[in-house]
Design goal:
This protein is of the alpha+beta class. It is built from 14 helices and 13 strands.
């Protein structure tokens, strides 16, 4: 559950009058706003996955109807005009950020200005999927992990699982022609093909599929109109699922989308997206001659060799919400005495990202978890070794 701060104003006084004849639940309307934001995140994630963005007709899905009902009740408590239906609620998720008085989610949990629906793509933001994954059921991230757990169980050897996992991370989309390439592995494909699906209509523009030239994930132009030849000028022109990608090259166009399959969204975001960071981290270790091996399991995780007596792990993530990443790590006990969390350089350079991550960690983990980047990984490892020797 996301905590919230208390907000007061005329809306609160009007809400108090409306509640005069209701039983006291012991929970303030402000507190319910903190519960509403993740509920809406789960709704947005589910709607984009199950029924796309055009099927907002009655009757609504149960979870959408519940989210709408809860939003209406919360608005009445606050003295605000509630949304008239699911389309308007979706628009609220596009324009109302986490720190809006309707939600009042504190900056210590979710970055101010964070919205659940992307203004250009009209799709769930990465933050939305991370918020939806924060909680007991694990949401979208847990779905990715469950799929990988099942894949690992079906692979007779650890090496076969690593091959399959690598294939998934490198191929967020598979075209019919790919199967005739010299590097195509029929055995690997037989084990992973059930993790792909037909391209959904919601990701097509005039019957054509666009993919980001940087991350390879789906892309959509503003107003769902085909772009003119050449690179997009700004992020305001296009959405891609990676959200942070440079726009140096135009998107790739698949004009026969019926001949392509796309990786399930949870795996695209939580497995394929961190691949570039993982490759950069591994390259840095190999250039420095630091021996390591992949750990069993779905995480992008490695253990360094010859670090006795202390064990040292590396885990790779690409998460835009630092406090939620810290919460995820706190719920997953570190595998080693020291764990380096590698994130993209661009994220680490964001104002306040490192501080928000550290502040959100439990005090007992701050000496065991260290945030770093592929560029800083080796220097940070060497510095940690020197400090360990000095303390010995």
């Amino acid at each position: 559950m996301l905590g919230v701060g208390r907000r007061r104003g005329r809306g609160m006084r009007a809400g108090a009058a409306r509640r005069a004849n209701r039983p006291d639940t012991g929970e303030t309307p402000e507190g319910r706003g903190g519960e509403l934001f993740p509920e809406l995140a789960r709704m947005v994630a589910a709607l984009a996955e199950i029924q796309g963005l055009r099927s907002f007709t009655l009757p609504y899905l149960d979870l959408a109807q519940r989210a709408l009902d809860h939003t209406v009740m919360h608005c009445l408590d606050l003295g605000e005009t509630p949304p008239k239906g699911l389309p308007e609620l979706w628009e609220w998720c596009r324009i109302r950020p986490a720190d809006d008085p309707l939600f009042a989610v504190p900056a210590s949990l979710v970055t101010p200005g964070t919205t659940l629906v992307h203004p250009v793509g009209q799709m769930p933001t990465r933050s939305c999927l991370e918020v939806a994954s924060h909680g007991s059921d694990g949401g979208v991230a847990a779905h990715a992990r469950a799929l990988l757990d099942d894949l690992e169980a079906r692979c007779a050897k650890d090496e076969r699982y690593r091959q399959c996992r690598r294939f998934l991370a490198r191929h967020p989309m598979v075209h019919q022609q790919d199967r005739f390439g010299p590097d195509w592995n029929k055995v690997v494909w037989s084990r992973v093909k059930d993790l792909y699906e037909q391209l959904p209509e919601s990701l097509l523009v005039d019957g054509i599929f666009l993919s980001c030239s940087s991350c390879g994930l789906p892309a959509l132009p503003r107003d769902r109109t085909m772009p003119v030849p050449g690179p997009f000028a700004t992020d305001a022109d296009v959405w891609c699922e990676g959200e942070q990608c440079p726009r140096d090259d135009p998107p790739k166009l698949i004009r026969e989308p019926d001949q392509a399959l796309i990786l399930r969204r949870s795996l695209r975001v939580f497995l394929a997206l961190p691949l570039r960071t993982e490759d950069a981290a591994r390259d840095a270790l190999e250039r420095a001659g630091i021996d390591h091996y992949a750990l069993s399991g779905p995480l992008s995780a490695y253990r360094l060799r010859n670090t006795s007596p202390a064990s040292v792990d590396i885990q790779v993530y690409d998460r835009v919400q630092p406090a939620l990443l810290a919460a995820h790590l706190a719920d997953s006990a570190p595998l080693a005495d020291h764990t380096f969390i590698v994130i993209p350089d661009a994220l680490a350079g964001r104002n306040g990202y490192r501080e928000a991550f550290t502040d959100a960690l439990p005090a007992l983990l701050r000496n065991r978890l260290a945030l770093t980047t592929p560029m800083d990984l080796v220097p940070d490892l060497q510095r940690a070794r020197r400090e360990e020797k000095d303390d010995a």
